[in-house]
Amino acid sequence: METSPVPQPYDRGRNLPRPASEITDDDRHNVVRHLQHAMLQDQIEFEQLDDRFAAVYASTSRAELDAVISDLPTPPPPVRAPTHPLPSARFSLFGDTKVGGWISVESDLSYVTVFGDTVIDLSSASIECDVTVTIRSLFGDSTVILPDGTRASLQAITLFGDTVDRLVPPVADAPTVRVICQGVFGDSKLYSLSQLPKGKFRRLWRALREGRV
User: Which of 157, 136, 142 shows the shortest CA–CA distance to 93?
Assistant: First the structure.
């Protein structure tokens, strides 16, 4: 016995253009980059990023999103897009490894440092897919910095060292970054950008974007 399909109510909004007030993840991403640019230009303090980022991801309308940056000058378009891929592997025997700036991440990353610290700053990177970042170090700290809202996990294996994991809540449809730190002497650290502590990491964050490292 055949059954007739259940009639569906007419959707007046079907196939109509998206309302101008509706915002997308790309809209939020553009505002986040605007905020990063403003901090580089000393237009806002690093301590303000946490509250501003939270307001970006809590916004549900164009007006709310625009209000987050309404007091900031308009940056020159474009803010500065990633132009080169991040090397998927790197080895250092003596010396620190520092990677960051306007880059794109297209595959898993693996870094080995024997004597020295490793800092992988992905906070301004274009992350194209879910990735795993593996850092192996004999003597030295391992630090990964991510954009606010990224889904992330930290697996740290170290004999002598602390583990620091400071992340803000993830946003819908954000890429997933799995961080694996393996070492003997040294700390393993994972930060969202807005949770980055004062001091050398903030100076390094600025230096990487300005091409001074």
Answer: 136
* Position 18 confidence tier, pLDDT thresholds 50, 70, 90: very low
Quote helix, strand, coil % in the chain, to nearest 5: 25, 35, 45
Residue 194 DSSP symbol:
G
Q: How is residue 106 written in tokens?
A: 């297209």
Q: Does the CA dihedral 111-115-140-47 come out positive or negative?
A: negative
| Number of domains present in the structure of the chain | 2
| Phi-psi group of 124: left, alpha or beta (phi > 0 → left; psi -120 to 50 → alpha; rest → beta) | alpha
In a domain? residue 25:
yes
Residue 183, pLDDT > 70, answer yes
Domain that holds residue 23: 17-80
